[in-house]
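Journal club side-thread
Mid-discussion, someone asked how the predicted structure for our own chain would compare to the paper's figures. Pasting it here so we can look after the session.
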Amino acid sequence: MAFARRLDSGRVSPYPHLRMARADGLQTGEWRYAGKSAVRMYSSFFYWLLREPFPIRQLGDQIARVILEAFGTMVVAAIVQGAMFGWLAGWYGAKFSVIYWSGAAGIFLILSESTTMVGAMIFAARIGTGFTVEIGSMQMTSQLDVLRLMAVEPTQQIVIPRVLAAILCLPLLKALTDAVAIVAAMIFGFAFFDISVPIFLQHAFSILTPRILTTSYIRCAIMAFFVGMNACGLGFYFQGGAVELGKTTTKSIVINLIVVIIVDTTYGILDSMLGWSVV
């Protein structure tokens, strides 16, 4: 009887498979709208990029904000990466009697791949989600509509400074985290495997070419562009309330992590085919 009363009141569905299908369709529609929001942001960004007035003051504010917010998290991640590669370089160097090349291998992996991809992922998680939440909150509280009423284009004043700041700041943060990771690797190599700094650096510069460093920083800038665009687009075209904003933020980090992996893989394949950074 209790079940029948709940059924009559609509709280229990006699067709649970239909309810699940409806939920799956709703989630699919949300992800489809999230993808369309990110794509729409690209056309709007390039349309307003070169139009006056250029938001130079907002760009400076966003550069300072991005560096301050991302620096601590990325430094901690760099210490972890340096410790890991310092340990692996020392362990495999001792195991295969190539201790003189262990430092060079560790530095090569740190500079060419580790801090690039992991740094971009952390940047997407720390800064990208911040962009989505901030702009989504503006959209939810109609602040973007107020800017339009004041004859101010939100894309020009809100989105463009954040995307350009991301492009400029991620390579700079990578340079700082590269130094931190290398120092951490040298400390761990010396502490656990008694690898002195001269031995650690003995062959490092013989295998590193300017092309390797150049392409890794170009890759960072490309990743930062996509991270910033996707994060801002999801917030800019957001619809709903606080619950929907939380779901949109989750979609932002998932999409950006996938994009970082795709960009890194695609760039690596093109790099190997065209020989941009062949040692």
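Post-session note: The two ends are 77 Å apart (CA to CA).
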